Amino acid sequence: MLNQEVYAITKQLNDMSELKDLIAQAGAQMEKTVEHLEEALARVRAGKANIKILDGIMVEYYGSLVPLTQVGTVTVPDAKSIVITPWEKGIIRDIERAIINSPLGITPENNGEVVRLGIPPLTEDRRRELVKQVKADTETAKVSIRNARRDTNELIKKSIKADNTPEDVAKDAEADVQKLHDRYIKRVDELFAAKEKEIMTV
């Protein structure tokens, strides 16, 4: 009798451990989604100088493509300009070409020493377009977070059937997944609100 009780307790602890792992995996997936969104939003030009808009621009350097930020010093002397000082003057034209060929939409100025980017003010229409783009990015992130919740809940249900996990343990696990979901959806909403404000502030 005692052995049966010990077995039952051990099994329940194992079930709980498995469910905790599932919840942790869901949390990690949701966190990754939010980090990806943060990176995407940082690249959206909001009318103010921000070196993050250079992320993703690659420069040819000794036959290899390397990130622009790894071939020189990037500074923001004021709210309307970015200055790139190449570590080697010989690649200044390569930096200029990489910026021109990028989707940035800014024409660089090259004085032979540095590459200067003047950040043009955004029109009202362009601001609204950017807000739509940001909204689409945040909606994609929300879908990913909801999918993580759905997939995890399905795995919890399978665990109940396969391992005879007690229903109250499974319900607690689903409640924890919902809390995670709500927390990350709130973070996405906060990121959108902050970026929208940044874009629309003249």
TrEMBL record:
<keyword id="KW-0648">Protein biosynthesis</keyword>
<keyword id="KW-0963">Cytoplasm</keyword>
<feature type="domain" description="Ribosome recycling factor">
    <location>
        <begin position="37"/>
        <end position="200"/>
    </location>
</feature>
<dbReference type="InterPro" id="IPR036191">
    <property type="entry name" value="RRF_sf"/>
</dbReference>
<protein>
    <recommendedName>
        <fullName>Ribosome-recycling factor</fullName>
    </recommendedName>
</protein>
<comment type="similarity">
    <text>Belongs to the RRF family.</text>
</comment>
<dbReference type="GO" id="GO:0005737">
    <property type="term" value="C:cytoplasm"/>
</dbReference>
<dbReference type="GO" id="GO:0043023">
    <property type="term" value="F:ribosomal large subunit binding"/>
</dbReference>
<dbReference type="Pfam" id="PF01765">
    <property type="entry name" value="RRF"/>
</dbReference>
<comment type="function">
    <text>Responsible for the release of ribosomes from messenger RNA at the termination of protein biosynthesis. May increase the efficiency of translation by recycling ribosomes from one round of translation to another.</text>
</comment>
<dbReference type="InterPro" id="IPR002661">
    <property type="entry name" value="Ribosome_recyc_fac"/>
</dbReference>
<dbReference type="InterPro" id="IPR023584">
    <property type="entry name" value="Ribosome_recyc_fac_dom"/>
</dbReference>
<dbReference type="GO" id="GO:0006415">
    <property type="term" value="P:translational termination"/>
</dbReference>
